[in-house]
Hints:
Elements: H1 3-9, H2 29-38, H3 46-50, H4 53-66, H5 80-97, E1 105-111, E2 117-122, H6 125-142, H7 159-171, E3 176-181, H8 185-188, H9 191-199, H10 205-215, E4 219-221, E5 224-226, H11 239-256, E6 260-264, E7 267-272, H12 275-291, E8 303-305, E9 315-317, E10 325-327, H13 329-343, H14 351-369, H15 375-394
Parallel strand pairs: 1-4
Antiparallel strand pairs: 1-2, 3-7, 3-8, 4-5, 6-7, 9-10
Amino acid sequence: MSENRQNQEGLALRNEPKGEALKPAEGTAAQVAKRAAESPAPTDKWMEEVVERENLRRAWKRVKANQGSPGVDGMTVFALKDYLNEHWPAIRDQLLMGTYQPQPVRRVEIEKPEGGVRKLGIPTVVDRFIQQAVMQVLQNRWDGTFSDSSYGFRPGRSAHQAVARAQQYIAEGYTYVVDLDLEKFFDRVNHDKLMGQIAKRVEDKRLLKLIRAFLNAGVMENGLVSLSVEGTPQGGPLSPLLSNLVLDELDRELERRGHRFVRYADDCNIYVHSERAGQRVMDGVTHFIETQLKLKVNREKSAVAKPQARKFLGFSFTGGTKPKRRIAPKARQRFRDKVRGITRRKKGRSMKQRIEELTQYLRGWRGYFGFCETPSVLEQLDSWVRRRLRCAYWVE
């Protein structure tokens, strides 16, 4: 690659010896992953693939596009290019020698739509870049080995596909759902068990050491750093892939038992013919999760019920032999609350600014919930938004 092209793309990863990285395997992603699982020999060179120039360039573009908040060092995404152009040779050497040490993540709390807070761990932008590079290599090798019933954080898969699969099961007569809620899943992942699963797939000791270092990097909160003894902090690029690896064991067990299920990250629904069968499945699967995976099922939020009485990824379903997708009541209420907040008269906020924010929110919301099959609800919400805007104009 010429120096001109490097400058055009914005990131010159200098002093990288040529010919060191592995050549990409040929074939589909599933074939690549299958060969990697069957033949462990190449896995001792995965770190070379992590620091391969094109993989790093893709990682930088993704981190730049995602932007995000600074970590504990205060460095922004916009400062990453210059920092890497100066320091990358040293960082690369540390990665290849297995001596790289990530910094602690910065604790951030965000409100959950249904109350409470979700704790995020924001890595430094440099660590996000490295995690993204690692994730790309692991995902390329692993994704084809995951269950067909797993939809979260996987290339070419979406929440809409997960909802459509659930709808298909209901239409086939599986009219009860075992709705499992894993309590504080991302905070409770056992590091030793997770590393054991990774070690079955990766023989490169440097990569194993790096992943362990990310898990144990610690959390900075109110200026103090606490150790990370369990969990995969949400906020880093690597966490979603590791969560899929943890729950792949659950997927395989559900498949072994012959269940119809759909999983999106830690949101898992199993579809059965009767309430009695659902209670039996709930007891058996809960026992497996808590004894084998060392995770905890939230019994207050989990339930066996008709699908129309539950929500899945913001959607619910109508009854009958031909169920339709509909927007769950709580999702509609969150929509109204959000619109009220945006359109409410605020000091220092012009009507034009509020409309711009509202337009952006509506575009994203419609892009997701437009997947529903009850257009009358969308029409009702549209009319409500218009009335809300008229009221906002009148009080100006």
